[in-house]
Design brief:
This protein is 35% helix and 13% strand. By secondary structure, it is an alpha/beta fold. The chain folds into two domains: 188 residues, Rossmann fold; 249 residues, Rossmann fold. The longest helix is centred in the middle third of the chain and has 16 residues. The chain is globular. It is an enzyme of class 3 (hydrolase). Belongs to the DNA2/NAM7 helicase family. SDE3 subfamily. GO terms for molecular function: ATP binding; hydrolase activity; RNA binding; RNA helicase activity.
Length: 454
């Protein structure tokens, strides 16, 4: 990480690292603590409203908590200032301004900057030394932007991050006529250290002009290439066909799919208790709909016995389960993605309630790039193939032997046949739906709650 280099080269530097969410800030802190020369000079500054029970012991030791470790507190200005690196969420950094640390930091790094609203992003700028301070925005404009509920805020373009706005409109940060950035202002990182090359292949082609180079630790990304779950050894992707029926409850426009819930639980059991022995904390389950998340959580508690888990010293709560938004900036050894949808005629309703998923390129990109060693997709390929990006992923998995279930008619992987099917199922409104989903920028219905971290 760049701030490692700053701290090594300039021992007098004062570095503030911010992220939109607590998870991302905690992950940064853990990486910092792995560097011995920084172990005693890191402060994880948390909002006092955060529960200590949500913080690991490792991070709690360097947090602003009481000696008992039972609650968080506002530390003295001197206690904050003595640390070379302070890590905080963007919103919590406002309390550092209240502590009169204005102009204190020589460097400000904002991680996942493409996910933050512009007002959030400018909060910690007051803490940067205006004479010699340096600001670095790190993020991916091809992944999720800010999550907003207010149509007024969206109409005034608060749905665009500062990172994306600068890269789209500001001279030094925009690509030149040759499609290149000025390397004095923009550095495009082309090495990807997360995923197995086969997992990275499709998003690399669709979103990054095939410029990404898979550089993940070979032992880690190849760990499950011989798993008994794989239809084809050596290819760590599975598409499991489920022709389930999506359902809704009266109180919510969100969807769930019972048959997909069953398959998710089957895979979790095989991963944890099978020969692969994957630890629960290494498993992530992504669903685009909050009702599916709730159904899966309930099924995990009902179908996996505490006695069996106790034998391996684990608990189902250690499995990370949530929406695509929750997984922005997140990663797991294994990702199970349940797509839920089985009826394209309901896409119009998704747009009405701003919970569209299958035709949201940025959500698609985030969802399929969270896995390090194994990606399992559960869904209906007939529906998913109506989208060109999903079709590319399914074609990749089918052609490499990772497909499970009833065969997909060959014509469904053909562009012209898919266009006819799309028109039959959704009519002319399908393009309008895509545009509306993009304009909404994934604004969530009140049922699909996304809590902004402080």
């Amino acid at each position: 990480m760049l701030f490692f280099q700053v701290c090594k080269r300039d021992l007098e530097s004062k570095v503030l690292v911010c992220a939109p969410q607590n998870y991302a800030a905690d992950l940064i802190t853990e990486l910092l603590l792995e560097e011995k020369f920084l172990a005693n000079s890191v402060l994880r500054f948390n909002a006092v409203s955060r529960s200590c029970f949500d913080i690991s012991e490792k991070i709690l030791r360097v947090s602003n908590c009481t000696e008992k470790g039972d609650k968080l507190m506002l530390p003295l200005k001197s206690d904050i200032a003595k640390n070379q690196i302070v890590v905080s969420t963007l919103i919590a950094s406002g309390r550092l301004v209240s502590a009169e640390l204005n102009d204190h930091f020589t460097h400000l790094f904002i991680d996942e900057a493409g996910f933050a609203t512009e007002p959030e992003t400018v909060i910690p700028l007051a803490l940067l030394d205006p004479r010699k301070g340096q600001l670095v925005l790190a993020g991916d404009p091809e992944q999720l932007g800010p999550i907003l509920r207010s149509s007024l805020a969206i109409s005034n373009r608060f749905d665009m991050s500062l990172l994306e706005r600068l890269m789209n409109t500001s001279g030094p940060y925009v690509k030149d006529k040759q499609g290149s950035y000025d390397n004095k202002y923009v550095t495009k990182l082309k090495q990807s250290f997360r995923s197995h090359p086969d997992i990275l292949k499709v998003p690399n082609e669709l979103f990054y002009q095939s410029e990404l180079q898979p550089c993940g630790n070979k032992k880690e990304v190849d760990e499950l290439c011989e798993s008994e779950l794989l239809p084809k050894k050596g290819f760590p992707l599975i598409f499991h066909r489920v022709d389930g029926r999506e359902e809704q409850e009266k109180s919510s426009p969100s969807w769930f799919n019972r048959l997909e819930v069953i398959e998710v639980i089957n895979y979790v059991k095989k991963l944890i208790f099978g020969p692969s022995e994957v630890a629960p904390e290494d498993i992530g389950i992504i669903s685009p709909y909050i009702q599916q998340v709730r159904k899966i959580r309930q099924a995990l508690n009902d179908e996996i016995s505490e006695e069996d888990l106790a034998q391996i010293g684990a608990h189902t709560d250690e499995i990370t389960l949530g929406s695509v938004e929750k997984f922005q900036g997140n990663e797991r050894k294994v990702i199970i993605l349940t797509t839920v949808r089985g009826d394209a005629s309901n896409f119009k309703q998704d747009v009405k309630f701003n919970i569209g998923f299958l035709r949201s390129p940025k959500r698609f990109n985030v969802a399929i790039t969270r896995a390090k060693a194994l990606l399992i997709v559960i869904g209906n390929p007939i529906i998913l193939c109506t989208d060109d990006k999903w079709r590319s992923l399914i074609r990749h998995i089918v052609s490499n032997g990772g497909y499970i279930g009833d065969p997909i008619p060959e014509q469904l992987l053909d562009e012209s046949a898919i266009q006819r099917l799309t028109e039959e199922m959704n009519g002319a409104s399908i393009n309008e739906s895509c545009e509306a989903t993009e304009r909404s920028n994934f604004m969530l219905h009140q049922d699909d709650t996304f809590e902004r971290d402080v």
